[in-house]
Design brief:
Elements (H helix, E strand, L loop, with lengths): L17 H20 L10 E6 L5 H12 L3 E5 L12 H11 L2 E5 L6 H11 L14 H15 L7 E6 L10 H9 L6 E5 L8 H14 L2 E5 L2 H5 L4 E5 L9 H6 L1 H12 L9 H4 L7 E2 L13 H4 L7 H20 L3
Parallel strand pairs: 1-2, 1-3, 4-5, 4-7, 5-6, 7-8
Helix pairs in contact: 1-13, 2-13, 3-4, 5-6, 5-13, 6-7
Bound molecules: phosphoric acid mono(formamide)ester.
The site of phosphoric acid mono(formamide)ester has 8 residues, from helix 2.
Length: 339
């Protein structure tokens, strides 16, 4: 078991070896058990985490903040308007100064073409671990919670498990690519067979897809892409119906130079694909024991119908959300404490 994590950044699960990830899950399961027993586990007593949210969050914010409290420390819930970031203070200066005052930095910045660069800039200068709370490319904590949930429902050997990630229609906002991209990179490393369905206007980043195929080759899983949602659902044991914006159709620089036009085109393309919903008819295409997962928030009755989302024989979305807490605590305990 790998046990050396102190000050290790978590910007993407790609930077963590499989043995390191296995340790995270060992710790997460242990902390989940201690949480259930009401047993104190103050592994980060008197330590401080600085969270910086450029966007809204329910699960990520509260899993980190509650997690720090349960580990005996404290998390500052920061937003740019509370900080000199709003007056242009650099990522470097922010990272260096927060490193002098506390024990971890956890930013969320999902702006397309900006977020991942911003987090990497912080990590370059921070002397404490920088943990991504999601950017425009990756959402590592979501991937960890998803995998923990799969272990709970299907056991620790996930080879041959059939997971279908399908793009789905949503109106709430143009969701980042980072959840499906993290899932396609991570799941096949554990032998999972992943199928991704999406309309042609909503691709994932081609470089990430290529890397995910490499991961599948090394990990014994597979990655299949299709534009047919029904075909992708045939025999699926897990379905993740998830909207993402059409960012992957644009290079980051092109997008930033023509942002208004790209957004307009994405909005027009979105309305072509309203039938992409996971509903009762589509449940019938899947394995008879199918489970529904979703990072949440779900756009109910657009991505997935209420009757499927609320069917407790199918939906495991709340277990998945709870596991954000236990995996977050495991990573924080290992990187901010540990050795
Ligand atoms: N899944 C997820 O990251 O949820 P929040 O945006 O609420 O943090």
């Amino acid at each position: 078991m790998n046990t050396r994590f102190r000050n290790k950044h978590l910007l993407t699960t790609e930077d963590w070896s499989k043995p390191e990830l296995e340790t995270v899950f060992e710790v997460a399961f242990d902390l989940k058990k201690r949480f259930a027993l009401g047993e104190p586990h103050r592994l980060l007593q008197d330590k401080t985490l600085f969270m910086i949210f450029f966007e809204q969050s329910t699960r990520t914010r509260n899993s980190m903040e509650a997690g720090m409290t349960q580990l005996g420390g404290h998390a500052h819930d920061l937003t740019p308007d509370k900080m000199q970031l709003s007056h242009g203070e650099s990522a470097k200066d922010t990272a260096v100064i927060l490193s002098r005052m506390g024990h971890g930095i956890a930013p969320r910045n999902c702006f397309y073409g900006i977020g991942n660069n911003y987090l990497n800039e912080m990590a370059r200068y921070a002397t404490v671990p920088v943990m991504s709370l999601q950017d425009d490319v990756y959402h590592p904590f979501q991937g960890l919670a998803d995998l923990m949930t799969l272990f709970e429902y299907f056991g620790r050997d996930l080879r041959g498990l059939k997971v279908t990630i399908s793009w789905a229609y949503a109106k709430s906002h143009s969701k980042p690519l980072s959840v499906p991209q993290t899932q396609i990179l991570l799941f096949p490393r554990f032998g999972i067979d992943v199928t991704v369905a999406h309309p042609k206007e909503f691709p994932l980043n081609p470089a990430i897809v290529e890397k995910a195929k490499e991961n599948a080759g090394a990990g014994g899983g597979s990655l299949t892409l299709t534009r047919d949602m029904d075909a992708a659902l045939e025999g699926a044991q897990i379905v993740i119906p998830k909207n993402w914006g059409g960012f992957g159709a644009y290079g980051a620089e092109d997008y930033l130079q023509n942002e208004a036009a790209c957004k307009q085109e994405m909005a027009v393309n979105l309305e072509k694909h309203k039938p992409w919903i996971f509903d009762r008819r589509r449940v019938k295409l899947t394995d008879k024991h199918v489970k529904l997962m979703h990072a949440l928030p779900a756009d109910r009755n657009r991505e997935v119908t209420d009757d499927v989302m609320d069917d407790e024989t199918i939906s495991i979305v709340y277990d998945e959300a709870e596991n954000r807490l236990h995996t977050a605590k495991a990573v924080m305990a290992l990187t901010m404490g540990g050795r």
